[in-house]
Amino acid sequence: MIVYIAAQATYHSIEVGVFSDLVCIARSSIAKRTASKMFIPVFQDLLAHNNLTLADCSFIAASQGPAPFTTLRTLIASLNAVHFATKIPLVGVNGLHAFAHQSDTQPHALTIVLLNAYHNDVYFVYRNSVGCQPIAELIQILQKEPLEVPLRFVGNGAILFEEHLKKAFAGRSFVLDTNNDFTTLETIAQHGLTQWHNKFTTQQLVPLYLKPSIAHRSIVM
Asked: Which of 133, 155, 189, 213 has the fewest CB within 10 Å, making it most exposed?
Protein backbone atom coordinates (compact mmCIF):
# COMPACT_ATOMS: atom_id res chain seq x y z
CA MET A 1 0.00 0.00 0.00
CA ILE A 2 1.47 3.32 -1.12
CA VAL A 3 0.23 6.55 0.46
CA TYR A 4 0.79 9.76 -1.48
CA ILE A 5 -0.62 13.19 -2.32
CA ALA A 6 -2.18 14.18 -5.65
CA ALA A 7 -3.01 17.77 -6.58
CA GLN A 8 -4.13 19.82 -9.54
CA ALA A 9 -5.21 23.31 -10.50
CA THR A 10 -8.56 23.51 -12.29
CA TYR A 11 -10.39 26.47 -13.78
CA HIS A 12 -12.14 27.13 -10.47
CA SER A 13 -9.98 25.77 -7.66
CA ILE A 14 -7.00 23.78 -6.50
CA GLU A 15 -7.81 20.17 -5.64
CA VAL A 16 -5.64 18.12 -3.31
CA GLY A 17 -6.18 14.58 -2.10
CA VAL A 18 -4.58 11.83 -0.05
CA PHE A 19 -4.45 8.51 -1.88
CA SER A 20 -3.72 4.95 -0.84
CA ASP A 21 -2.73 3.25 -4.09
CA LEU A 22 -5.59 4.37 -6.38
CA VAL A 23 -8.14 4.98 -3.62
CA CYS A 24 -8.76 8.55 -2.49
CA ILE A 25 -8.80 8.62 1.32
CA ALA A 26 -9.64 12.31 1.66
CA ARG A 27 -9.70 15.43 -0.47
CA SER A 28 -10.13 19.19 -0.26
CA SER A 29 -10.87 21.93 -2.75
CA ILE A 30 -9.58 25.49 -2.41
CA ALA A 31 -11.15 28.35 -4.35
CA LYS A 32 -8.61 29.87 -6.71
CA ARG A 33 -9.05 33.37 -5.24
CA THR A 34 -7.80 32.17 -1.85
CA ALA A 35 -5.40 29.48 -3.05
CA SER A 36 -2.15 31.38 -2.44
CA LYS A 37 -3.13 32.01 1.20
CA MET A 38 -4.95 28.80 2.01
CA PHE A 39 -3.14 26.03 0.15
CA ILE A 40 -0.51 25.20 2.79
CA PRO A 41 -2.94 25.33 5.77
CA VAL A 42 -5.48 23.15 3.91
CA PHE A 43 -2.69 20.80 2.84
CA GLN A 44 -1.51 20.42 6.45
CA ASP A 45 -5.06 20.00 7.81
CA LEU A 46 -5.84 17.31 5.24
CA LEU A 47 -2.93 15.25 6.49
CA ALA A 48 -3.55 15.95 10.17
CA HIS A 49 -7.25 15.03 9.99
CA ASN A 50 -6.24 11.65 8.60
CA ASN A 51 -3.52 11.08 11.21
CA LEU A 52 -0.79 11.44 8.62
CA THR A 53 2.33 13.49 8.13
CA LEU A 54 4.41 14.04 5.01
CA ALA A 55 6.79 11.40 6.36
CA ASP A 56 3.99 8.86 5.78
CA CYS A 57 3.71 9.85 2.11
CA SER A 58 5.92 8.39 -0.61
CA PHE A 59 5.59 11.31 -3.03
CA ILE A 60 3.45 14.18 -4.30
CA ALA A 61 1.95 13.96 -7.79
CA ALA A 62 0.74 17.18 -9.40
CA SER A 63 -0.63 18.21 -12.75
CA GLN A 64 1.71 20.64 -14.48
CA GLY A 65 -1.15 22.04 -16.53
CA PRO A 66 -2.61 23.36 -18.61
CA ALA A 67 -4.82 25.42 -16.32
CA PRO A 68 -5.34 29.12 -15.59
CA PHE A 69 -1.75 30.22 -15.23
CA THR A 70 -1.92 32.14 -11.94
CA THR A 71 -3.66 29.25 -10.16
CA LEU A 72 -1.25 26.77 -11.73
CA ARG A 73 1.78 28.77 -10.60
CA THR A 74 0.37 28.99 -7.07
CA LEU A 75 0.07 25.21 -6.90
CA ILE A 76 3.48 24.52 -8.39
CA ALA A 77 5.31 27.15 -6.32
CA SER A 78 3.71 25.80 -3.14
CA LEU A 79 4.66 22.19 -3.89
CA ASN A 80 8.19 23.15 -4.90
CA ALA A 81 8.49 24.88 -1.54
CA VAL A 82 7.22 21.76 0.25
CA HIS A 83 9.84 19.68 -1.57
CA PHE A 84 12.58 22.20 -0.75
CA ALA A 85 11.71 21.99 2.95
CA THR A 86 11.11 18.24 3.20
CA LYS A 87 12.81 16.61 0.17
CA ILE A 88 9.67 14.59 -0.55
CA PRO A 89 9.80 13.37 -4.19
CA LEU A 90 7.68 15.22 -6.74
CA VAL A 91 6.03 13.69 -9.79
CA GLY A 92 4.91 16.02 -12.58
CA VAL A 93 1.92 14.90 -14.65
CA ASN A 94 1.04 16.31 -18.06
CA GLY A 95 -2.60 17.15 -17.44
CA LEU A 96 -3.46 17.29 -21.13
CA HIS A 97 -2.15 13.78 -21.78
CA ALA A 98 -3.87 12.54 -18.63
CA PHE A 99 -7.19 14.03 -19.76
CA ALA A 100 -6.80 12.48 -23.21
CA HIS A 101 -6.19 9.07 -21.61
CA GLN A 102 -9.19 9.55 -19.31
CA SER A 103 -11.43 10.54 -22.24
CA ASP A 104 -10.41 7.99 -24.85
CA THR A 105 -13.15 5.48 -24.06
CA GLN A 106 -14.75 5.03 -27.48
CA PRO A 107 -12.40 3.16 -29.85
CA HIS A 108 -14.56 3.73 -32.93
CA ALA A 109 -14.58 7.52 -32.62
CA LEU A 110 -11.83 10.13 -32.84
CA THR A 111 -11.80 11.77 -29.41
CA ILE A 112 -10.66 15.41 -29.44
CA VAL A 113 -9.82 17.11 -26.15
CA LEU A 114 -10.41 20.88 -26.05
CA LEU A 115 -9.63 23.04 -23.00
CA ASN A 116 -10.24 26.77 -22.77
CA ALA A 117 -7.04 28.74 -23.38
CA TYR A 118 -8.90 32.07 -23.42
CA HIS A 119 -9.19 34.71 -26.16
CA ASN A 120 -10.72 32.16 -28.61
CA ASP A 121 -7.78 29.76 -28.20
CA VAL A 122 -7.96 26.13 -27.09
CA TYR A 123 -5.49 23.61 -25.74
CA PHE A 124 -6.05 20.44 -27.72
CA VAL A 125 -5.14 16.78 -28.00
CA TYR A 126 -6.12 14.48 -30.85
CA ARG A 127 -4.30 11.66 -32.57
CA ASN A 128 -0.62 12.52 -31.97
CA SER A 129 -1.16 16.29 -31.96
CA VAL A 130 -0.91 18.38 -28.78
CA GLY A 131 -0.81 22.16 -28.55
CA CYS A 132 -2.66 25.44 -28.41
CA GLN A 133 -4.39 27.10 -31.35
CA PRO A 134 -7.25 29.47 -32.21
CA ILE A 135 -10.47 27.46 -32.33
CA ALA A 136 -11.21 28.62 -35.90
CA GLU A 137 -7.85 27.34 -37.17
CA LEU A 138 -8.19 24.02 -35.35
CA ILE A 139 -11.68 23.50 -36.80
CA GLN A 140 -10.27 24.00 -40.30
CA ILE A 141 -7.75 21.23 -39.64
CA LEU A 142 -10.38 18.89 -38.19
CA GLN A 143 -12.68 19.41 -41.16
CA LYS A 144 -10.10 17.51 -43.21
CA GLU A 145 -10.66 14.35 -41.17
CA PRO A 146 -12.36 11.56 -43.19
CA LEU A 147 -16.15 11.83 -43.05
CA GLU A 148 -16.55 8.17 -42.04
CA VAL A 149 -14.67 8.84 -38.78
CA PRO A 150 -17.08 9.96 -36.01
CA LEU A 151 -15.76 12.90 -33.98
CA ARG A 152 -16.18 13.13 -30.22
CA PHE A 153 -15.38 16.41 -28.47
CA VAL A 154 -14.66 16.58 -24.73
CA GLY A 155 -13.43 19.27 -22.36
CA ASN A 156 -14.57 22.69 -21.21
CA GLY A 157 -13.27 24.18 -24.45
CA ALA A 158 -15.66 21.97 -26.41
CA ILE A 159 -18.55 23.16 -24.25
CA LEU A 160 -17.45 26.78 -24.60
CA PHE A 161 -17.29 26.58 -28.40
CA GLU A 162 -20.30 24.31 -28.84
CA GLU A 163 -21.98 26.58 -31.39
CA HIS A 164 -18.80 26.81 -33.47
CA LEU A 165 -18.55 23.03 -33.54
CA LYS A 166 -22.21 22.50 -34.43
CA LYS A 167 -21.93 24.94 -37.31
CA ALA A 168 -18.64 23.54 -38.61
CA PHE A 169 -19.61 19.85 -38.40
CA ALA A 170 -23.30 19.98 -39.31
CA GLY A 171 -24.13 17.00 -41.47
CA ARG A 172 -21.43 14.69 -40.18
CA SER A 173 -21.23 12.34 -37.24
CA PHE A 174 -19.99 14.05 -34.07
CA VAL A 175 -20.77 14.03 -30.37
CA LEU A 176 -20.23 16.68 -27.71
CA ASP A 177 -19.64 14.96 -24.37
CA THR A 178 -20.70 17.54 -21.77
CA ASN A 179 -20.09 15.13 -18.87
CA ASN A 180 -16.33 15.12 -19.42
CA ASP A 181 -15.08 18.68 -19.02
CA PHE A 182 -11.76 18.37 -17.15
CA THR A 183 -9.28 15.90 -15.74
CA THR A 184 -10.28 14.18 -12.51
CA LEU A 185 -7.97 14.16 -9.51
CA GLU A 186 -8.13 10.36 -9.62
CA THR A 187 -6.65 10.44 -13.14
CA ILE A 188 -3.78 12.66 -11.98
CA ALA A 189 -3.19 10.23 -9.11
CA GLN A 190 -3.21 7.23 -11.45
CA HIS A 191 -0.66 8.78 -13.81
CA GLY A 192 1.44 10.00 -10.89
CA LEU A 193 1.55 6.55 -9.31
CA THR A 194 2.60 4.96 -12.60
CA GLN A 195 5.37 7.51 -13.08
CA TRP A 196 6.56 7.06 -9.50
CA HIS A 197 6.77 3.28 -9.99
CA ASN A 198 8.84 4.00 -13.12
CA LYS A 199 11.07 6.34 -11.06
CA PHE A 200 10.05 9.46 -13.00
CA THR A 201 10.45 11.97 -10.19
CA THR A 202 11.74 15.54 -10.15
CA GLN A 203 13.12 18.07 -7.70
CA GLN A 204 11.21 20.95 -9.29
CA LEU A 205 7.83 21.13 -10.99
CA VAL A 206 7.54 23.41 -14.02
CA PRO A 207 4.24 24.71 -15.43
CA LEU A 208 3.15 23.28 -18.76
CA TYR A 209 2.31 26.39 -20.75
CA LEU A 210 1.52 25.61 -24.38
CA LYS A 211 0.07 28.97 -25.35
CA PRO A 212 2.50 31.15 -27.34
CA SER A 213 2.83 34.80 -26.47
CA ILE A 214 1.22 37.37 -28.74
CA ALA A 215 4.68 38.56 -29.77
CA HIS A 216 5.77 35.03 -30.65
CA ARG A 217 2.57 34.37 -32.57
CA SER A 218 3.00 37.53 -34.64
CA ILE A 219 6.57 36.50 -35.51
CA VAL A 220 5.44 32.99 -36.54
CA MET A 221 2.62 34.35 -38.66
From this structure: 213
